[in-house]
Amino acid sequence: MYFISFVFLLVFILVSVGFFTLFERKVLGYIQSRKGPTKVGFMGLLQPFSDGIKLFIKEQNFPMNSNYFIYLVCPFLMMIQSLFMWVLFPYYVNCIDFDMGLLFFLCCGSLSIYGLMICGWSSNSIYSMLGCIRSISQAISYEVSLSLILLCFFMLLDSYSFLDFFYYKNLVWFLFISFPLFFCWFSCCMAESNRTPFDFSEGESELVSGFNIEYGSGGFALLFISEYSSIIFVCLITTIIFFGSDFDSIFFYFKLVLLCFVFIWVRGTLPRFRYDKLMYLAWKCYLPLSLNYLFFFTLLKVLCFYHFFL
């Protein structure tokens, strides 16, 4: 049953990635005063399937001086890594229940940088190499703040399991007790998933297409799937932590879709950050803020313990 439930989960993730791309194209179209895809199927609903078939049947090109084997394998590794994180989906039955979900998320999430690095290096292109160097420094900067913010809430829970957030859903949304921390977390998530305004590993104006410049057809589709499934998973984690994790309610999934919409809205609205300002934001703004909140939550935990047990 574990295997069957996880296979069903993967199928629905892949379908949701396809419709997320359609959702993004529609929203960006209306932001730019146009309609987006409308031709394939009713109101363009079959456009994701058309795009997927087109990408996978296109001819695969091999750069002359690239490392062929690593160049081919790397997109598969990135997709496996992004889908592997979905075992943390907080089921009640028929899937793995992680008592150490936080540690698994931090370990598995930080592996994505290796995929970017190997993709950029194996293509043997100066643009892709610059893109992977940028993404490495960006990930190192923002994963520190991301880990500290997560530690704040798991310290309050006194547990490392994402399922335990369910017990607090009727008491309080953690958004209300840490409103500035939510914006810090959300921008760190955008930086981790290489989304606008922090898409420096794919900066079109400077690096043509960044680390994936030499990839086309199926390889590009796999990289695309890994990026978008990671975005949906990050929105899921954000909903669980900040907006009440009532998994049995359809309202929970409406909040998840709303956060995905905010990702697209930011992409259609904000220009790309300057790289030195990105580093300044990570080390001079987000890191002190997350550290101060960590001390605040530690003090809150000590006061609660003192009040209830002494």
Automatic annotation (TrEMBL):
Please name the GO terms that the record assigns under molecular function.
NADH dehydrogenase (ubiquinone) activity; NADH dehydrogenase activity
UniProt-listed Enzyme Commission number(s): 7.1.1.2
- Compartments in which it is found: Mitochondrion inner membrane
Source organism, top-level taxon: Eukaryota
Gene Ontology terms: biological process: aerobic respiration
List the membrane topology term(s).
Multi-pass membrane protein
Kindly indicate whether the keyword ATP-binding belongs to this entry: no
Keywords per UniProt: Membrane, Mitochondrion, Mitochondrion inner membrane, NAD, Transmembrane, Transmembrane helix, Transport, Ubiquinone
Q: What class of enzyme is it?
A: translocase
Q: Which reaction does it catalyse?
A: a ubiquinone + NADH + 5 H(+)(in) = a ubiquinol + NAD(+) + 4 H(+)(out)
Q: Which cellular components does GO assign to this protein? A: mitochondrial inner membrane
Mark the transmembrane ranges: 6-23, 68-89, 101-119, 140-160, 172-191, 220-244, 250-270, 291-309
Concerning InterPro entries, the annotation shows: NADH_UbQ_OxRdtase_su1/FPO (IPR001694), NADH_UbQ_OxRdtase_su1_CS (IPR018086)
HAMAP family in alphabetical order: NDH1_NuoH
Q: What task does this protein carry out?
A: Core subunit of the mitochondrial membrane respiratory chain NADH dehydrogenase (Complex I) that is believed to belong to the minimal assembly required for catalysis. Complex I functions in the transfer of electrons from NADH to the respiratory chain. The immediate electron acceptor for the enzyme is believed to be ubiquinone.
Q: List the protein's name.
A: NADH-ubiquinone oxidoreductase chain 1
UniProt lists the gene as: ND1
